Amino acid sequence: MYEETRSGGQTGKDPGFLRSTDGIFKGIQFILSLLLVIFVSTTHYWSVAGAGFVGFANFAAWFSFITLLMSGVIYYFRLYNGACLGRLPWRKVELNYALGSAILHFIGMIACSITASSYSHNGLFIASAIFSVFVMLSFLVYAFIIFRGKDPRSVPTRPIDSV
């Protein structure tokens, strides 16, 4: 079931990931990003004059959705122990990803809020702005947990001088 790699780790299924802190956070972020994709896509922002900025919120939602799906696969199958991915500093990668995604969703929230204040039929724009805030907060909490010293799921810590 497990396969040894050059980096000394094992690859294979990790069913405990879904019950771990990282798995729960990634699951919450995934569901919130999916809801945000649905809300932003149903606003039909491309047919409303002056609502083109909401396209950035759509980009941020799809970016988070797809990258969280890829991240979930990497962690569930322990691909971070593989030959190429085993060399990455996963704590820094996850921290930068969470902070970058939070910034993207903050900008998307601003775009949805500005658009909602300009139009009378603004219910979906408001919902998109609110869910952008929820996704942004989930990424910020996850970044704070990683910043406080928790390593991402099962990733072995390496000395700083090893490359």
From TrEMBL:
Domain of life: Eukaryota
Domain MARVEL: 17-151
Family annotation (PROSITE patterns): MARVEL (PS51225)
Topology of the protein relative to the lipid bilayer: Multi-pass membrane protein
UniProt entry tagged with the keyword Iron: no
Subcellular location: Membrane
Keywords: Membrane, Transmembrane, Transmembrane helix
InterPro entries: Marvel, MARVEL-CKLF_proteins
Transmembrane segments: 27-47, 59-77, 97-119, 125-147
Glycoprotein among keywords: no
Protein name, per record: MARVEL domain-containing protein
Source organism: Clavelina lepadiformis (Light-bulb sea squirt)
